[in-house]
Amino acid sequence: MRYRLKTAFCIAASFGFLLAASGEASRFVSRVSDDELKTDTVSDKKVAEDAPANENSIIDEVVWVVGDEAILKSDVEAMRIQGEMEGMKWNGDPDCIIPEQLAVQKLFLHQAALDSIEVTESDVSQSVDQQINYWISNAGSREKLEEWKKMTVKQMKESLRDDFRNHQLIEKMKSNLVKDIKVSPADVRRYFEKMPQDSLPLIPTEVEVEIITQAPRIAPEEINRIKNELRDYTERVTKGETSFAALARLYSEDPGTARQGGEFDDYVGRGMLDPAFASVAFNLTDPKKISKIVESEYGYHIIQLIDKRGDKIKVRHILRVPRVSPEALEKAENRLDSIADDIRANKFTFEAAASYLSDDKDTKNNNGLMANQSEDGFTSKFRMRDLPTEIARVVDTLKVGEISKSFRMVNSKGKTVCVIAKLVNRIDAHRATITEDFQAMKAIVQSKRRADFLKDWVQKKIKTTYIRINDKYKNCNFEYEGWVK
Fold first, then answer.
1. Under DSSP, is residue 300 helix (H, G, I), strand (E, B) or coil?
2. What tens digit of pLDDT does each residue of 82-92 get?
3. Distance (Å, rounded) from C-alpha 94 to C-alpha 98?
């Protein structure tokens, strides 16, 4: 079972994040003196005493110092390699761009420390898990990812933790700096009023969609089969015939933990788990005992406590997922098609049917209307790329007001459900107008003002921060002035 995340998005490693990372090398050396910068090397003292300095005795090279934080040559190389792996195109010399961006990140981290900005371990863990899950999805499996990265998932998580913490600190610091920057309607009008028509932002096609879902009913016999298997596992462990971990490797259907004997990589809090799972897991006190069978949104589990640490626990579990029969899927599809026919015959509305008949908790109380979460909150408008793939494919063929035939999709819990969709509205791609697209235009102006403010902040921060850079970087064409003093 994957942790139940509070946000339903997966993050890719963006350039901004890559530059927030300082790498293992920067953790090796965090403070340097003027003398160390002048030699531009960090050397093993014992080797230096025993033998003359040579290339093999140089562990790393200090290329910049910002405040009392070092930027190493290995940091720059690591960011260059990662950027190339992510398909990053450098707009200039990466040997100049990368260290400058690393230096900017350190300015924000320094200010975050001064302002006592903090992030929670829970938030860091969630972000790390999302990144790992994204990589697993791209690689095809946990095993393929480990083969490609040449390290275990646990090692990946440990290597990412500090970088993600720094990234979150930087973003929180930036948000704190720009929190009071507001934009009025008059500001938006002034910004765009003299802009040529063909220079106005292009708003892509957006749609509003309502859905009704039906989860295929699982036969009682299938549920009993799963429960009997879990009871058998419990009995075998209790009798000492085998270990919980061995059974998890053989039978658990959670690909994220089965290979590790059902064990979660980290200590987790209640908020990171399915509520039903958490309720039972946090009541366990004896590591030798196995929990009762727990039904969650993912399937059925048995749980074994490993350890408790404050308000977090570490557990292992076995997940079994009941199979949905083809007959049950067909029955759910037929039921939805019948509902759609009744709606078309004006027996009741789509919205009323969604409120009373839909199984989708996220849309049921909103008359079936899907909600899109953005930085500015929730909106009913979706770009096609932001819709689930199966829904986007169907909606693209509908006319406004039309209801689809039933189709199948995998929901956010990994379960196959049957769906009918109604296209409520379609706004074709167009140049932005104040009357129709004020929020989008406001966001552009606000984003520009915040970016300008942060750029000015960095420029001022450079002037009041101790900075030393290696001579070979002094001829770089930097974005900010004042690095060379």
1. strand
2. 888 777 888 88
3. 6
